Amino acid sequence: MKYVLYPDYFDPRNTRKYGRRISKPSRKLIDGNDLREILKSLNIHFSERTGKYPRTPWRESFIFEVESEVKKGTLLKMIERKIAQS
Prior knowledge:
Helices cover 28% and strands 23% of the residues. It is of the alpha+beta class. The protein has a 3-stranded antiparallel sheet, covered by helices on one side. The chain starts with a strand and ends with a helix.
């Protein structure tokens, strides 16, 4: 299945209202490069392009289009664990 991931999902400065999808204990500031490295370490096929997250259209960002067999929520938890380990 194909999913879209935005770095805003993992930005600790965002509230849940503005799109943060990770829990408070694992909140560390990561950017597009960190997310790229995490996806590579998980052996997940992805493509990347510039764009804007719909909840924060005033901020330029990256959009990661991910192909994975796991559900999006499970994929987000896997990325969250990697963030917490770093």
